Amino acid sequence: MAGSLDGLVFSPIADQAPGQVGTRTRFTYHERDGRIWAEYAGGDVVQGHLVGTRAGDRLDFRYVQLKTDGATSSGHCVSTVAELPDLRLRLEETWEWESQEGSGTSVVEQLP
Questions:
Q1: Burial 21-47 (b: 16+ CB within 10 A, else e)
Q2: 86 has which bridge partners?
Q3: From CA 79, how far away is CA 93, in angstroms rounded?
Q4: The pLDDT value given to residue 16
Q5: Of residues 22 and 32, which shows the higher confidence score?
Q6: Is the pTM here over 0.90, yes or no?
């Protein structure tokens, strides 16, 4: 199992569609006793939160965010935690909106 996410900061490696998280978004993760949560902001996201669980290298969480245009949105994500050759962590995500249409995949990596 890859190391703890607690206190680590992650950023997407590529931009998503407008109004979603992108390379300017920063996620600060916390982890304790199989629970995970994070705060995130940047780019089109003014404020976002996620909360869920970790079992081994699998994360399962829900997220909610406020965008710069005042709209809110929420969804569900399942991620796999992987360790990069330089020992940083990478999250390979499969997500789907619950408040609107859309789904996809993304990758976020721990910032050095």
A1: bbeebbbebebeeeebebebbbbbbee
A2: none
A3: 4
A4: 74
A5: 32
A6: yes
Whether the CA torsion 63, 105, 41, 67 is positive or negative: it is negative
Task: Report the C-alpha dihedral over residues 74, 25, 111, 94, rounded to 10 degrees.
Answer: 30
Phi-psi region of 3 (alpha: psi -120 to 50; beta: other; left: phi over 0): beta
Type of residue numbered 39: E
- Reading the block at residue 27, the tokens are 């996620």
Distance of alpha carbon 26 from alpha carbon 22, whole angstroms: 9
Determine the Cα–Cα distance for residues 29 and 50; give it in Å rounded to an integer.
Answer: 9
Place of tokens 């969804």: 75
Q: Which amino acid is at 81?
A: V
- Residue pLDDT, tens place only, 41-62: 999 999 999 999 999 999 999 9
Look up residue 5 and give its two tokens. 């996410």
